[in-house]
Amino acid sequence: xxxxxxxxxxxxxxxxxxxxxxxxxxxxxxxxxxxxxxxxxxxxxxxxxxxxxxxxxxxxxxxxxxxxxxxxxxxxxxxxxxxxxxxxxxxxxxxxxxxxxxxxxxxx
Length: 108
What we know:
This protein is mostly helical. It has one domain: Orthogonal Bundle (Cyclin A, domain 1), CATH 1.10.472.
């Protein structure tokens, strides 16, 4: 795997684990999940990231490279992975954006 994806692995919190039961997967989606899905719809609509291709990548990468990530987080990680592959964003830009978001949450 390319060094360009290292930033994605840095998002996996120590002690995080993949869900192991249906009960762990059950529940209402977090607000960020709905926002992320809407963002993906917009990216697809504008031709930047096809929804079908993203879902196929989510299935493939979610069961291989990102297997240790919680299921609900995989969607975001695979989307970022795809955007890096497409050259829409690079690791430096993604790292800077993630830092800015974390700082904003720490202020609130």
